[in-house]
Design a protein that fits this description.
By secondary structure, this protein is an alpha+beta fold. It has 2 domains: 136 residues, Porphobilinogen deaminase, C-terminal domain (Double Stranded RNA Binding Domain, 2-Layer Sandwich); 80 residues, D-Maltodextrin-Binding Protein, domain 2, CATH 3.40.190.10. It is 33% helix and 25% strand. The chain has 7 helices and 11 strands. The strands form 3 sheets. A 5-stranded mixed sheet has the order 5-4-6-3-7, sandwiched between helices. The protein has a 3-stranded antiparallel sheet with strand order 1-8-2, with helices on one face. The protein has a 3-stranded antiparallel sheet with strand order 9-10-11. Strand 4, helix 1 and strand 5 form a beta-alpha-beta unit. It is globular, with a radius of gyration of 18 Å.
């Protein structure tokens, strides 16, 4: 079992994703003294280890000072409590699963910060052809979560992105539609591409491919190539 956002786009031979349990909130969360991104003081020191979060935050607020922040959740929260930072951005899902949801000051909308592909989802990996494993995974799989992750992974594959790439992709069900958002940017937030598509939830791979086509047409692939070279 893995956090789905950490699962590579291509799995080793003989292994497959066999299930996805119900999804947690995929949003990014702000921990610190603010009620919204607009409330964050000018020039605030913000901790994150994610190039995607850095890019998206600087796209929205170029005045922010981004600070490299690594370690487990407790380590990151401690650095905030010690006054080194004005705020940190973490996955709401991780804080919720650890029972630390009270630390969340606010969550970003999906239009403010497009989450990492698979954020909030767990992925069950198993041996290809293992019928018993597939059956066990199917018993705990949530259909909507599986569809969303499938669309997100299709888009990631098309963008040739990894967990170290400034890319956000998030699929969410909205009534009878599946809505898929995508973001690609430079780490300093100076340039970005943001697109959204919606369509039939029963065609998640096609929807992911449609998002890639839109983003590629807007220059996302060239932007990501430049980001990789930095």
């Amino acid at each position: 079992m893995h956090s789905a956002k950490d699962v590579p786009g291509e799995l080793p031979d003989g292994l497959e994703l066999v299930g996805v349990p119900p999804r947690e909130d995929p949003a990014d969360a702000w921990v610190g003294e603010a009620g919204s991104l607009a409330d964050v003081p000018e020039g605030a020191r913000v901790g994150t280890a994610s190039l995607r979060r850095r890019s998206e935050l600087l796209t929205a607020r170029p005045d922010l000072e981004m600070v490299e922040l690594r370690g487990n959740v407790d380590t990151r929260l401690r650095r905030l409590a010690e006054g080194e930072l004005d705020g940190i951005v973490l996955a709401a899902a991780g804080l919720n699963r650890l029972g630390r949801e009270s630390e969340i000051a606010f969550t970003f909308s999906l239009d403010q910060l497009v989450p990492a592909p698979g954020q909030g989802s767990l992925a069950l990996e198993g041996r290809a052809g293992d019928d018993a494993g597939f059956a066990a995974a199917a018993a705990v799989t949530d259909r909507e979560a599986l569809i969303e992750l499938t669309a997100e992974r299709a888009a990631v594959a098309g963008l040739d992105a990894s967990c170290d790439t400034p890319v956000g992709v998030c699929a969410r069900h909205d009534g009878d539609l599946l809505v898929l958002r995508g973001f690609a940017g430079l780490p300093d937030g100076s340039e970005h591409v943001r697109e959204i598509v919606e369509g039939d939830p029963m065609q998640p791979v096609a929807l992911g491919e449609a998002l890639v086509e839109l983003m590629a047409g807007a220059g996302a692939l060239e932007l990501l190539a430049r980001a990789e070279a930095i």
